[in-house]
Amino acid sequence: LLLSTSDENKAKQLHRATKAYDRGRVLIRVLPNRGRDIGAFLTGFPREIAKYNIIGHLHGKRSLHTGDRDVGEKWREFLWQNLLGGLYPMIDTVLDRFAKEASLGLVFADDPHLSDWDFNRPIAEELARRMGRTAPLPPYFDFPIGTMFWARSSALMPLCRLSFDWDAYPAEPAPLDGTVLHAIERLLPFAAQQAGYRYATTYIPGMIW
Questions:
Q1: Contact, 181 vs 169, CB < 8 A?
Q2: DSSP-based three-state secondary structure for 122
Q3: pLDDT number for residue 61
């Protein structure tokens, strides 16, 4: 269980909350408040990502920029239900599919909202070039909106090998769009494809946000 936070007091709270966790090692790191969940994942835990065969990436998804706290709460519930479970045993379902299908590299929620490159395509094209992709990026595509997913670590290697340092991410308050964070979010399926994998999406009837 890999947990990140931005200060020591929050880390102490996490230590108390996970004291009884008995399903494996708990690693808690205090990281710079930069790069949000993506920086914490790619730059804060690069060795751990490479260590495990399957890894899940989840976060709090507060989305305070919407001005409506309920939006972030509903979005997080939607994503956690799809990727962790509650109504259905989604962790078991996802891991079973990974075990049965060697070509599967990435799993994320089938989001009911459509989004495209927005202002992120130029950044994404440069990152795709650095990953070794030669084909043009398509105008329409699926991606893990909210940056929560399960993946084979090998499917993430095209992105991980870019070795993002903390300065690669925008300082807070980060813009709402047009940053490397938004580009990485959209490139996850293409990273998996570059590594030779395909992706799949989860769907829970009646679960929307």
A1: yes
A2: helix
A3: 80
CA distances from 79 to 23, 100, 183 (A): 23, 23, 20
Q: Match 């936070």 to its residue by tokens.
A: 5
Read off the pLDDT of residues 15-66 as tens digits, 9 standing for 90 and up: 999 999 999 999 999 999 999 999 999 999 999 999 999 999 999 887 655 5
Kindly report, residue by residue over 62-91, the tens digit of the pLDDT: 765 556 668 888 999 999 999 999 999 999
User: Contact 171/34 with Cβ under 8 angstroms?
Assistant: yes
Strands (E), the chain: 2-5, 27-30, 54-57, 104-109, 149-152, 198-202
Separation of alpha carbons 187 and 54, rounded Å: 19
From residue 155, give the alpha-carbon distance in Å to each of 10, 30, 90, 150.
31, 26, 20, 10
Q: How far apart are CA 147 and CA 11, in angstroms?
A: 22
Average pLDDT over residues 201-209: 91
Checking 85-89 for CB contacts under 8 A at 24+ apart, the result is 87/204, 87/207, 88/204
Place of tokens 């994503």: 79
Among candidate residues 66, 64, 68, 61, the one with its CA nearest the CA of residue 83: 61
